[in-house]
Amino acid sequence: MRYARVLVGGHPVWGRVGQRNVELLSGSPLGGADTHVIGTVPCEGAHWLPPVVPPVFYAVGLNYPRHISHAGAATPERPEVGYRANNALTGHLSPIVRPAEVTGRFEAEPELVAVIGRTLRHATRDQAREGIFGWTIGNDVSARTWQHQDRTFWRSKNSDTFKPMGPWIETEVDALAQTTTLRVNGEVRAEFATGDMVFDPFDHIAALTRYVTMHPGDVLWMGAESTCQLEPGDTVDVEIGGIGVLSNPVRLEEERGNQS
Amino acid sequence: MRYARVLVGGHPVWGRVGQRNVELLSGSPLGGADTHVIGTVPCEGAHWLPPVVPPVFYAVGLNYPRHISHAGAATPERPEVGYRANNALTGHLSPIVRPAEVTGRFEAEPELVAVIGRTLRHATRDQAREGIFGWTIGNDVSARTWQHQDRTFWRSKNSDTFKPMGPWIETEVDALAQTTTLRVNGEVRAEFATGDMVFDPFDHIAALTRYVTMHPGDVLWMGAESTCQLEPGDTVDVEIGGIGVLSNPVRLEEERGNQS
Asked: Which long-range CB contacts under 8 A does B27-30 form with residues at least 24 apart?
C-alpha cells in the first residue's frame, strides 16, 4: 500500500495512492487507528506534501562503504545518528530553493527513509523490522561551504526546502533489496545498491532504542553512497525501486534587496 | 499569563496557571486561536507535561562568556544553533532517569527557553521580539563521556528524560533581566545573570530566519553559564526569576538483566 499526504482545500489530508487517484482518508494510518475514505483526487496535479512530519527526524551520516572511503573517514564502529529539522521538509514536485548567499558545491544526497509505525524501546532487530510502517525517499540537500564553515549542520542541511521527502510511504517493499538512482535532468548521475549499508535500519533502531523511545511517525534517513551537484533550473530525481520517484525542481532564491 | 500543559484523564490539555488552580483550555493558545475554559484542576498534584512539543527544537551551544572561557573555546562570531530531540522531553516533577551504562560526569545545564508564537522568516530583531510567545525553563542534562565519545549528541543529550522543560510558559516577563539559579537538594550550585549572553534570543532568531522559517511552538534553548553534577537520589531545581522553578528528581535506570 502507498500512503501519502496531499493538500486539499488548504489542508493536509492523508490518502491511499492508486494508479490514477488518491483515495482521501479520514485520518492517519500511522498508529493503527481506523480510517475510512472521504473522497478522491486525481494523482495528476495533486499537491504532494512530505508524507509525514516527524516528531523526531533522525538522519544517519556515514553509512555506505564507498561514501566513507571517498570521504577519507573511518568506518563507524557502531550505529549513530544525527538530526534534521522539520522546517526544511518539502514534498514531491515542490522546488528546492537555493539561498542567494550559497557559494560552493550545492549537492543532492539520495536516501532511503524508514517511517516508524510503533512505539519502540529496547527493540530487538525483529521488533525493529516489525516496527517500521513503511519506506519513503529523501534528498539530503547540502550546501558544502556552510557545512564546513559552521559549527553544526543548521543551515547547510536545514535551510527551508533542503529536505525533500516523498512522494509517498510504501508499506510492501523489500527496501534493502532495491537500487537507488540519482538523476539530474533525466541523466543518471549515481546508482547504487540501496542495502549496501554499514549498519542497516534495524541495527540503528535496535541501538537507538536502548536510550531513546521512537514513536509512530518518526523518520530515519539512512545516508547516501553518492552525491551530485545541483544548479538552478535543474530537476533532480531520486528513484528507489519498488517505492517510487521523488522529483524536485531547483530554483534560485529571489534577491531581497538591501534588507537586513 | 502562565500557560502549561497538564495530563488529564490520560490526555494532554492546555491550561492557564493561577495561584491555586489550572484553568483547562479548549485548545492551544499558540498561533492565536480562540480558546475557552473547559474545567479546572488544582496546581497541587497536577501532572505537568512539557509545556509544548516543538515542531523544531533549537538549542544554542556556547553562549555565555564564562562558560566559553571555562571550556577554553573561541567566542562564536555569529549566532549558530544545534538541535535536540522531542523524545528526551519530560515535564516538571517527572524524573530524570540516568541510564545504567552512563559513566563519568552526568550534569545539569540550566537554560532559558524562548517559545515562538508566530511564523517568522527574515525577521528583524523587533519582529523576533514580537514573535516570542513566552518563556520557559530547560535543563539540558548531559552525559559527558558519551558527549566526547560519540560523533553527535544523540544519546549524551537526547536519551529519554534528558530534557526537562517547564513548568509553564510565562508570557509577561523581562526574561533577560532575570537571574538563573541552579540548586541540587536545595543547595545553590550556580547562579548567573540570565541575560549575560554573547548573542541574545532576538539575535539568534534574526540570524536563523534568514534561512529557516520558525513556527509557533518551536523552542529555542539559550545555553547555560554553569553546570553541576547530578547523582541518583538528587532533586535538581532550575529557577529563573519571574518565570518559576523547574524541579526534577534524578533516578537510576533499573537494570534490564541480560537482554540484548
From this structure: B28/B217, B29/B3, B29/B133, B30/B115, B30/B117, B30/B133, B30/B216, B30/B217
Cell numbers 524536485 correspond to what residue?
Answer: A248
CA atoms within 13 A on the CB side of A216: 9
What is the C-alpha separation between A54 and B156, in angstroms, rounded?
A: 21
CB contact under 8 A, B212 and A82: no
Kindly tell me the sign of the dihedral angle through the C-alpha atoms of A121, A125, A127, A133.
positive
pLDDT digits (tens, 9 = 90+) for B136-191: 999 999 999 999 999 999 999 999 999 999 999 999 999 999 999 999 999 999 99
Rounded to an integer, what distance in angstroms lies between the CA atom of residue B236 and that of residue A97? 45
pLDDT digits 0-9 by tens, B191-233? 999 999 999 999 999 999 999 999 999 999 999 999 999 999 9
DSSP letter for each residue of A174-196 = -GGGSEEEEEETTEEEEEEETT-
Residue A139's CB is within 10 A of a number of other CB atoms, namely: 28
3-state helix, strand, coil in chain B (%, to 5): 15, 40, 45
Phi-psi region of B171 (alpha: psi -120 to 50; beta: other; left: phi over 0): alpha
What are phi and psi for residue B31, nearest 5 degrees?
80, 0
Determine phi and psi for A42, rounding to 5 degrees.
-70, 145
- pLDDT for A258 equals 52
Of the partner residues A76, A151, A155, the one whose CB lies closest to the CB of residue B61: A151
The chain A residues in contact with chain B (CB within 8 A) are 53, 55-56, 61, 76, 80-88, 99, 121-122, 124, 150-152, 154-155, 158-160, 206, 208, 210-215, 256, 259-260
Check residues A121 and A260 and name the one with the higher pLDDT: A121
Among B99, B122, B208, select the one facing A259 at the smallest CB separation. B122
Q: Assess contact for B62 and B71: CB atoms under 8 A.
A: yes
Distance of CA A102 to the CA centre of its chain: 22
Give the span between the Cα atoms of A40 and A23, in whole angstroms.
Answer: 4
Reported confidence tier of residue A260, pLDDT bands at 50, 70, 90: very low
Question: Are residues B68 and B255 in contact, defined by beta-carbon separation less than 8 angstroms?
Answer: no
Are B248 and B235 spatial neighbours (Cβ–Cβ below 8 Å)?
yes
Across the A:B interface, residue pairs with CB atoms under 8 Å apart total 94
pLDDT reading at B31 higher than 90: no
Confidence of residue B67 (pLDDT cuts 50, 70, 90): confident
- Fill in the DSSP letter of residue B126: H
Number of Cα atoms under 13 Å in the Cβ half of residue A185: 7
What is the amino acid identity at position B129?
A: R
Q: Is B95 exposed, middle or buried (0-12, 13-18, 19+ CB in 10 A)?
A: middle
Point out which residues pair with B115 in neighbouring strands: B134, B219
Q: What predicted TM-score, i.e. pTM, was given to this entire model? A: 0.96
